[in-house]
User: Which sequence fits this backbone?
């Protein structure tokens, strides 16, 4: 009888953990605890639970290498090396995770996880309970039945395949029960099951399809037509029966439990949240918090706001504060760019009271009322993005002092991968309060609470990073943003005019070669012209037409003279619109300078990013890009200074690839580009001229970022054939780099 009210999920813990460990790059916490296997395990388990929705759940583990199978055959799994040190510690972590999730797990001396799963699935079958087995081990396919399915993990941690009896038959041409008969003949190299030498899957399947099982095969051995095959079977008959015994999952273990013991239970929430924080599994932590009771909705209507309408009221507010008072400050501004934002007012939260100083362009004199507070060191002020407030106030001639905390930066040091700077999202995440993003009074009211909560959760070493690096840096960046950089608008205007002429010329020539006018910027129209009208080789089709991306155009570069023109047209139009024209629009009317925003809490790596405008990506490879850079100037008697690490990319490459030639070059203080030129062009070091060095530099930096022969040819002005030879010579000269590049690709595929 089929039990529709229950569903059992059996998980092969070892299989999932191994799969996760090798599928993901090595991850570790700030304390050095390796977690990639646990993270992948939890990801796969969570997905399986969401998709299968079992009522009963248990995880099975191997206990040790010695089992009844090693008693039968001492070389069973003897070919397996010990797990890496980075993995060993994660077995205990997975068990801790399961305990916190309130999920049962079983392990039994002398048996493998397969045997536990086999026995429990048999018990479930006896009760008619539908069962799904989660594993990456093909041995489990022998357990498939009308009530038992196998969810097999495949590539990575996201791909799975479900096996029922029909699916097993479709893939292996035999029934699930016959899978052990196939293993008896072909063996299993992963478990060091010998099988019969020289018999692979194809032959094994053919024999079992014909004879049903190995007993019948040996009882009718003379019916095997091939003499050579027959001799193999006879010579290794004992191995065949041993192999079947080793491959057969034990389904009659004596387990002191029942299926009803493994009902799915609610997790130990606090314990699980604590473990997620320890493991730094922030997305799992967030998901768990999201499942908590709905956050309380809060709005400004629930609090009293004290208006600071006069100078006397403002002065009274300041004098009423203790010198060490902790005051949250929140700017009411209409735009996110501090140099363009209009300040409408300032909210203050002190001693659980909210104050508001309204400011308009017509009444900015009110800032003078609050200046003593803002510029005083002795008042501890807390912000969300203090840098923004600093720049806005600098525009009004106020130098903000006494910045004691910044929730944006404190969140960032705790979780550099967090997305979004909105204060309301952080309040929701850490305080479980639901506040609208434009409800400034309520945001101000909870800013201090958020800061204190974050501070209590911050490890000591991260507090040092926050106080000694991030906070002082924020102050420096604020003054950099406010100062901006001088840009010569007439220079940009001249470049824009020239680019417009060149774009028009390219456009005209493209129309001539296409024998028609069309919208070059339309992928659909361009695809039709290239692949239908001109008949060029089709590389990629899309839902709306043909692929016309840069990688496709580069592949077609030599196939028609229109292609280089289109590539050049795209480069020039992007240069004009993205840089030349937009930079002119971003010159501030009051300063005559461009003021970028340095995003300090943006990248997971800790690097700064530049936006509105992005001053880090102004192209330098094209002559036009270099001309744009020349439009950035300084005041008279001032200089622009550029400082950078010396070839940090290549030094890092030497370290991680352990290439002897590369390491030796740096240790001896030889110029790396000169050394590379000597290696790839086969000339002595003293014969390397500026042209060869320049090309070698393009090779050095290009290859480590995956440049193609086309890209290198374009950057160096040589043919693709020559560029291809440069790349080959480079890889021959630096074999350690070549091996590293190969290994990292294979790792990515795993």
Assistant:
């Amino acid at each position: 009888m089929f039990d529709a009210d229950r569903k059992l999920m059996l998980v092969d813990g070892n299989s999932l953990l191994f799969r996760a460990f090798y599928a993901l790059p090595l991850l570790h916490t700030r304390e050095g605890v390796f977690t990639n296997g646990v993270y992948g395990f939890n990801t796969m388990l969570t997905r399986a639970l969401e998709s299968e929705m079992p009522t009963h759940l248990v995880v099975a583990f191997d206990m040790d290498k010695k089992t009844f199978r090693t008693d039968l055959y001492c070389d069973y799994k003897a070919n397996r090396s010990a797990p890496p040190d980075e993995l060993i510690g994660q077995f205990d972590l997975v068990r801790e995770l399961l305990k916190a999730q309130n999920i049962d797990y079983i392990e039994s001396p002398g048996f493998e996880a397969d045997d536990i799963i086999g026995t429990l699935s048999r018990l479930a079958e006896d009760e008619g309970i539908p069962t799904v087995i989660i594993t990456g081990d093909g041995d489990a396919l022998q357990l498939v039945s009308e009530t038992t399915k196998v969810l097999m993990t495949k590539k990575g941690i996201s791909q799975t395949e479900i096996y029922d009896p029909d699916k097993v038959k479709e893939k292996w041409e035999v029934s699930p029960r016959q899978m052990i008969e196939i293993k008896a003949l072909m063996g299993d190299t992963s478990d060091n099951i010998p099988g019969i030498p020289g018999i692979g899957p194809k032959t094994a399947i053919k024999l079992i399809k014909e004879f049903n099982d190995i007993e019948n095969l040996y009882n009718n051995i003379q019916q095997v037509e091939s003499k050579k095959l027959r001799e193999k079977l006879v010579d290794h008959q004992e191995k065949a029966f041993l192999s079947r015994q080793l491959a057969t999952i034990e389904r009659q273990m004596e387990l002191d439990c029942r299926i009803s013991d493994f009902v799915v239970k609610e997790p130990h929430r606090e314990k699980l949240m604590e473990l997620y924080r320890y493991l730094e599994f922030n997305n799992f932590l967030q998901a768990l918090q999201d499942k908590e009771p709905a956050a309380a909705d809060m709005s400004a209507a629930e609090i009293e706001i004290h208006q600071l309408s006069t100078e006397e009221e403002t002065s009274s507010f300041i004098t009423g504060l203790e010198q060490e008072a902790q005051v949250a400050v929140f700017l009411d501004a209409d735009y996110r760019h501090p140099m363009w934002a209009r300040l409408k007012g300032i909210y203050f939260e002190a001693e659980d009271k909210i104050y508001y100083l309204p400011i308009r362009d017509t009444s900015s004199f009110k800032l003078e009322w609050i200046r003593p507070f803002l510029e005083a060191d002795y008042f501890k002020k807390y912000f969300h993005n203090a840098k923004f407030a600093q720049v806005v106030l600098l525009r009004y001639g106020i130098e903000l002092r006494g910045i004691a905390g910044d929730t944006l930066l404190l969140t960032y040091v705790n979780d550099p991968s967090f997305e979004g700077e909105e204060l309301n999202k952080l309040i929701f995440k850490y305080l479980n309060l639901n506040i609208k993003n434009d409800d400034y009074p309520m945001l101000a009211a909870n800013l201090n609470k958020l800061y204190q909560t974050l501070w209590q959760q911050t490890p000591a070493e991260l507090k040092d990073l926050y106080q000694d690096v991030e906070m002082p840096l924020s102050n420096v960046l604020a003054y950099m943003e406010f100062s901006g950089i001088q840009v010569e608008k007439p220079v940009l205007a001249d470049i824009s005019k020239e680019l417009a002429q060149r774009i028009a010329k390219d456009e005209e020539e493209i129309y001539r070669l296409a024998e028609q006018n069309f919208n070059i910027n339309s992928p659909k129209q361009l695809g039709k012209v290239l692949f239908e009208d001109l008949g060029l080789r089709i590389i990629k089709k899309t839902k709306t037409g043909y692929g016309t991306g840069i990688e496709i155009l580069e592949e077609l570069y030599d196939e028609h003279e229109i292609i280089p023109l289109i590539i050049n047209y795209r480069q020039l139009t992007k240069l004009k619109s993205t840089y030349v024209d937009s930079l002119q629009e971003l010159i501030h009317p009051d300063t005559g300078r461009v003021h970028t925003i340095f995003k300090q809490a943006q990248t997971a790596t800790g690097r700064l990013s530049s936006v509105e405008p992005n001053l880090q990506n102004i192209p330098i490879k094209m002559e036009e890009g270099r001309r744009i850079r020349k439009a950035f100037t300084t005041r008279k008697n001032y200089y622009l200074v550029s400082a950078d690490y010396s070839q940090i990319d290549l030094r890092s490459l030497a370290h991680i690839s352990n290439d002897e030639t590369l390491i030796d070059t740096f240790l001896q203080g030889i110029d790396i580009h000169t050394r590379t030129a000597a290696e790839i062009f086969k000339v002595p070091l003293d014969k390397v001229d500026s042209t060869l060095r320049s090309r070698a530099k393009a090779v050095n930096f290009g290859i480590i970022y995956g440049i193609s022969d086309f890209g290198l040819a374009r950057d160096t002005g040589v043919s693709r054939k020559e560029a291809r030879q440069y790349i080959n010579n480079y890889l021959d000269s630096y074999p350690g780099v070549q091996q590293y590049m190969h290994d990292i690709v294979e790792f990515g595929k795993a």
Observations:
- The domain at 174-249 is CATH 1.10.150.20 (DNA polymerase; domain 1).
- Residues 489-514 form the longest helix (26 residues).
- The chain has a mean pLDDT of 87.
- Residues 38 and 93 are 7 Å apart (CA to CA).
